[in-house]
């Protein structure tokens, strides 16, 4: 139950403009746990996430080496079925991007792309995913309103629900609460704690405090390198590397 | 101090006056042209003028064949130019990478927009009328007008597509969408009002052009309605040219009337484009 879901081995990556690269990163992401990637901005955390669902294919990557395994599937293999991969590895972005359609249509969008036309199943997915994202109570009467009319916090949970509707195995969240107030942030964090029973969660937090609050495992990433990777209860109390300790205590950032 | 401040006020007021004058000089001719033509053309416009064939060497009767001809030419232009123009715009905006090849295409499109319309007319005569043997026909005229309209449609459509936020595309892809699904379900619907505006403006220009149809489609005097795409036809802009310069003793009211009909046709399309644009802006969710 608590095995390795994603295995990153000696991953190096650079962009054509030389920006934000990864250097020889290796780490194992465990299932049914929250793995946090934290560190200063521009260190490669988002790049690492985007490598795992090959979203980096849309950007200007000139060099990739190393391996990323998802349950024994070679993610970086050019022959990998990207559609299937992205349905298994869902992603929530820093800024909530709701698609220009209704709340309901946002939730059914991914399923419809995959060919689901059964209205009963789509309706079931809408309710189930909204409940899982702790949004059902707030929007059940507004399913046909434009998604943009929801508050910022609701929009971000809608983005999470939209990913959950696809029943992925891994959920990656890139600073999902960076634009949210503390109450909305608390709701998202609580939701993640519930979700980890059933999913593998990868989170780039927006602060060290959030990292410490949420992490089962935490990786400190600095300038494209993995400095330290340890259980959350250890790394924030007894960091092994001086740089990790300096960052956690706010000496740089 | 007070003197300097007064001088600055004076310069300010002179500046405003100059700008106001410039605005007036640009707007006044438009109002004059439209106003004069509508005012002097209105008396000539009657049910007979709009629905009857021309008689007595065009000096009496109506202009129905010219109206119908311009309608078919504009529709034919749309049928050809819209699918090709939108296809090219989607390719350039969504699929093409920035290479020497696509840059050459872009330069070609920009240059296509700068070619004088009479050159399009002669090109259409050579290719469609003579070489492909379509004859002087609605088909040849529509194809010629379509060539001329394509760069306008491509440029505005590409601009409308690019205005759709990139984040929508990334989200759609991350939810397991293919690039085509993303284009069809997100990007195109969002860009459609902008594309439509460009299409209407392009067609409006085509509807009012004389030179491209002069050698390819237009008939001097043909008092019957076209029955197939291979028929020549009368058309409003060319008819206006003919009755203004080629027909001695032409009643001036009919000239103004014809100009008014053409103007209403073209301005009506312009108004439609404005309505489409403003309604889409009000409904836009980004």
Describe this structure in words.
The complex is a heterodimer of chains A (253) and B (286). In chain A, helix 3 (103-113) crosses helix 4 (119-132), helix 3 (103-113) runs parallel beside helix 6 (152-164) and helix 4 (119-132) crosses helix 6. Chain A is globular and about 55 Å long. The model of chain A has no long low-confidence stretch (mean pLDDT 91). In chain A, a hairpin with a 2-residue loop joins strand 9 and strand 10 (225-231). Chain A has one domain (4-248): P-loop containing nucleotide triphosphate hydrolases (Rossmann fold, 3-Layer(aba) Sandwich), CATH 3.40.50.300. With 253 residues, chain A is α/β, with parallel strands linked by helices. Chain A has helices spanning 45-52, 82-88, 103-113, 119-132, 136-139, 152-164, 182-195, 208-214, 232-235, 242-248, and strands spanning 4-15, 22-30, 34-38, 61-70, 73-74, 89-92, 170-174, 200-204, 217-222, 225-231. With 286 residues, chain B is mainly alpha-helical. Chain B has one domain (63-283): Orthogonal Bundle (MetI-like fold), CATH 1.10.3720. Chain B has helices at 2-41, 47-51, 64-95, 100-114, 117-131, 138-162, 166-174, 179-208, 211-214, 236-245, 252-283; strands at 54-55, 60-61. Chain B has a two-stranded antiparallel ribbon with strand order 1-2. In chain B, strand 1 (54-55) and strand 2 form a beta hairpin. Chain B is globular. Chain B starts with a helix and ends with a helix. At the A-B interface, helix 2, helix 3 and helix 6 of A face helix 7 and helix 8 of B.
């Amino acid at each position: 139950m608590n095995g390795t879901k994603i295995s990153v081995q000696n991953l190096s990556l650079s962009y054509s403009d030389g920006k934000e690269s990864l250097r020889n990163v290796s780490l194992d992401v465990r299932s049914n746990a929250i793995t946090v990637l934290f560190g200063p901005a521009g260190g490669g955390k988002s790049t690492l996430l985007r490598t795992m669902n090959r979203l980096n294919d849309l950007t200007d990557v000139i060099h990739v080496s190393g391996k990323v395994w998802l349950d024994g599937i070679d993610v970086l293999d050019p022959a990998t079925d990207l559609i299937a991969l992205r349905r298994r590895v869902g992603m929530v972005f820093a800024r909530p991007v709701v698609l220009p359609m209704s709340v309901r249509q946002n939730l059914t969008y991914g399923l419809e792309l995959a060919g689901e036309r059964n209205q009963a199943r789509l309706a079931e997915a809408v309710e189930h995913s909204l409940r899982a994202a702790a949004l059902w109570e707030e929007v059940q009467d507004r399913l046909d309103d434009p998604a943009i009319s929801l508050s910022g916090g609701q929009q971000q949970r809608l983005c999470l629900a939209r990913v959950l509707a696809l029943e992925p195995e891994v959920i990656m969240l890139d600073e999902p609460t960076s634009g949210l107030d503390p109450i909305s942030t608390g709701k998202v964090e609580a939701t993640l704690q519930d979700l980890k029973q059933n999913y593998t969660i990868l989170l780039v937090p927006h602060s060290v405090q959030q990292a410490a609050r949420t992490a089962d495992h935490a990786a400190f990433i600095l300038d494209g390198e993995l400095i330290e990777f340890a259980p959350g209860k250890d790394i924030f109390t007894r960091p092994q590397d001086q740089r990790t300790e300096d960052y956690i205590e706010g000496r740089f950032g | 101090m007070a003197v300097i401040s007064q001088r600055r006020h004076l310069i300010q007021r002179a500046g405003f006056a100059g700008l106001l004058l410039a605005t007036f000089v640009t707007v006044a001719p438009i109002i004059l042209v439209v106003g004069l033509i509508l005012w002097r053309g209105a008396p000539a416009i009657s049910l007979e003028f709009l629905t009857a064939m021309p008689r007595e060497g065009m000096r009496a009767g109506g202009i129905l064949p010219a109206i119908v001809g311009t309608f078919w030419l504009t529709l034919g232009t749309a049928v050809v130019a819209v699918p090709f123009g939108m296809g090219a715009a989607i390719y350039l905006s969504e699929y093409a990478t920035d290479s020497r090849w696509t840059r050459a295409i872009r330069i070609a499109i920009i240059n296509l927009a700068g070619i004088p319309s009479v050159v399009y007319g002669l090109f259409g005569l050579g290719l469609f009328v003579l070489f492909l043997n379509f004859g002087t026909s609605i088909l040849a005229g529509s194809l010629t007008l379509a060539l001329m309209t394509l760069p306008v449609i491509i440029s505005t459509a590409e601009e409308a597509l690019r205005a759709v936020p990139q984040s929508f595309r990334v989200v759609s892809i991350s939810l397991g969408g293919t690039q085509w699904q993303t284009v069809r379900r997100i990007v195109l619907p969002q860009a459609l009002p902008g594309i439509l505006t460009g299409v209407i403006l392009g067609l409006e220009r085509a509807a009012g052009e004389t030179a491209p149809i002069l050698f390819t489609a237009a008939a001097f005097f043909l008092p019957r309605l076209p029955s197939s795409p291979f028929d020549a036809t009368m058309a409003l802009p060319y008819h206006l040219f003919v009755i203004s310069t080629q027909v001695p003793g032409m009643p001036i009211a009919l000239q103004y009337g014809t100009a008014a009909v053409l103007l209403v046709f073209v301005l009506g399309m312009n108004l439609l484009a404005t309505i489409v644009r403003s309604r889409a802006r009000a409904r836009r969710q980004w």
